Amino acid sequence: MTMDRLFQRLAKGTRRVSSACLALSVFLFAGSFAVLTADIVMRYVFNHPLQHVGEGVTIAFIYVYLVGGAALYCRNEDIAVDYFFRKAGVKPQAIWLLAIYLAIAATMAITMVETLKLIDVQRGVLTPALRLPLAIEHAALVVAATVIFYASAVEALGCWIWFKSGTRPAVFESRTG
Hints:
By secondary structure, the protein is an all-alpha fold. It is built from five helices and no strands. The protein has helices at 3-44, 53-74, 83-87, 90-121, 135-165. Helix 1 packs antiparallel against helix 2 (53-74), helix 1 runs antiparallel to helix 5 and helix 4 packs antiparallel against helix 5 (135-165). The protein is elongated. The model has no long low-confidence stretch (mean pLDDT 87).
């Protein structure tokens, strides 16, 4: 299998993972909004608030923030400063981005390992109100770090192809560069 073909298969995986992460984030955001609206109505109209809504919504928003951010990272929709980067030639751009993506992948790998250690240490610890395993909250960071690690590895492969061929393969067709 050629590097280009491998990249295209991995890029397809990145598109699927980012779509799944965005769908999860939208679902959790909409669900949280609906639950909070119901809580407000129940509290002020019927004087009977829903119990433990705050903790569940907090957990959902941790996932929305981390997993949604990972999805945007996959799509290169994070913040970037391009002026000086675009002034450099193709090979310096490819090497620069390769180094960045590899550094991000390494950081996410360390984040995954350390979060899994934390989950193991806090095994048996429950959230205060819902009495759910605290690992449910921490798992959001593991999911986000895994998605960002994968996307960074795919982009690093793309940068290597770019460096060798002079043409940058795109994970998402709408991306320029």
